[in-house]
Specification:
It contains 13 helices and 17 strands. The protein has about 400 residues and is an alpha/beta fold. β1 and β2 form a beta hairpin. α4 runs parallel beside α10 and α12 crosses α13. The chain binds pyridoxal-5'-phosphate (PLP).
Length: about 400
């Protein structure tokens, strides 16, 4: 099928909830490049919204999926699953966690974290209130849109789930003020990705950790987008030198294959008991094998160090090419999660990049979001930034 045929069928048969890039039907990918149904190639600096951390069709992930698909695709969690326990061991060995729960997506991982925190709070007789932040994004299920501190994701879907309060990023006082007797947990993203690539500062995060210890609250970090190497360490919390109680993962965990996880520290690892929570596909053999291959690549010697070096280079070059443009207010981010804030909507710039063969995204209306594959190269970074620079030039020439 060509692009037009795919797009027409999509309009006819698929409920359109996404506001898609109207012209793009991608059919093939390798490394940092994807191809559309008409054979045109693009440099993908959005990585399937932070999913293709290892680029497209990484050979080790493809191999693991092929081998597992030929052996055993699915069995129920009523039975023990070898790739799942191996994956859990890897995640525990490389983190603060004592145990893992597996599911299929970021929202589902956050639901698990919310339920676990609520069981912990309720059984201790203290309550089930959860504090999250304004401009956060935690998913699209009812509990996670409630946790999400952005009205635009909630309107039309009221009533929301009870027991959530919102405070402000990098304002410890506002979190402290939101704590009530019934509060059991604070849940944040270390970089608010959808909310505009807003980075939590170290003082705030360390303060939150201290507050949670002093007030006996759980610290939950939504690492769905920041986890799995995206910020230059396997998990973003490592960059802050803190220990959370729970983190949630999805996106890059399976190297493109859908899988999510909730990692629980020693305080709460045994709160869930049989019957408390479940997910039919969670951590099934195929998903676990894909994630195991992904984490093996990411924890290979030098992998994360290279991500940090690439990030440094990318940020330096970005600052260079954007500094002449008054319409650009700030370049910010952590690792390979980068936002470029403009003084006006960036939709046209995203379209301009696409026309030149570069895929980038947005984070809110005025922030251009770059999420390159962690396996990208300096040569590809130069190519992408060359394309972006020419779009910026066209854009400013046009508006002059
Ligand atoms: C920080 C964060 N949490 C949760 C989610 C929801 O993940 P999913 O779409 O896999 O449910 C996202 C998705 O963008 C995210 O960025």
């Amino acid at each position: 099928m060509n692009s037009e045929e795919i797009i027409q069928m999509n309009h006819k048969y698929v409920i359109d909830t996404y506001g898609k890039q109207r012209t793009l039907a991608l059919v093939k990918g390798e490394g940092s490049r994807v191809q559309d149904a008409d054979g045109r190639s693009y440099l993908d600096f959005l990585s399937g919204l932070a999913v293709n951390g290892l680029g497209h069709c990484h050979p080790k992930v493809v191999d693991a999926i092929k081998k597992q698909a030929e052996t055993l695709i699915h069995v129920s969690n009523l039975y023990y699953i070898e790739p799942q326990v191996l994956l859990a061991e890897r995640l525990v060995d490389n983190s603060f966690a004592a145990k893992c729960f597996f599911c299929n997506s970021g929202a589902e991982a956050n639901e698990a974290a919310i339920k676990l925190a609520r069981k912990w709070g309720n059984t201790a007789g203290r309550g089930a209130g959860i504090i999250t932040l304004m401009n956060s994004f935690h998913g699209r299920t009812l509990a996670t849109i409630t946790a999400t501190g952005q009205e635009k994701f909630q309107h039309n879907f009221h009533p929301m789930v009870e027991g959530f309060k919102y405070s402000s990023l990098n304002d410890l006082g506002s979190v402290e003020n939101a704590i009530q007797e019934s509060t059991c947990a604070i849940m944040i993203e270390l970089v608010q990705a959808e909310g505009g690539v807003n980075v939590a500062d170290e003082e705030f995060v360390k303060g939150l950790e201290r507050l949670c210890r002093e007030r006996d609250l759980l610290l939950i970090l939504d690492e769905v987008q920041t986890g799995m190497g995206r910020t230059g360490t396997l998990f973003a919390y490592e960059r802050y030198g803190i220990e959370p109680d729970i983190i949630t993962l999805a996106k890059s965990l399976g190297g493109g294959f859908p899988i999510g996880a909730m990692l629980a520290g020693p305080r709460v690892a045994d709160v869930f008991q049989p019957g408390d929570h479940a997910s039919t596909f969670g951590g099934n053999p195929l998903g676990s094998a894909a994630a195991l291959a992904t984490i093996e690549v990411m924890t290979d010697t030098g992998f994360l160090e290279n991500v940090r070096e690439l990030s440094h280079y990318l940020l330096e070059r970005l600052n260079e090419i954007t500094s002449p443009y008054d319409c650009i207010k700030e370049v910010r981010g952590l690792g390979m999660l980068i936002g470029i804030e403009f003084d006006s909507p960036v939709k046209k710039i995203v379209g301009g990049c696409l026309d030149k063969g570069l895929i980038v995204g947005t984070a809110g209306e005025k922030v251009l979001r770059l999420l390159p594959p962690l396996t990208t190269t300096r040569v590809e970074i130069d190519e992408a930034l060359g394309l972006l620079e020419s779009v910026l030039k066209d854009f400013t020439d046009e508006s002059a």
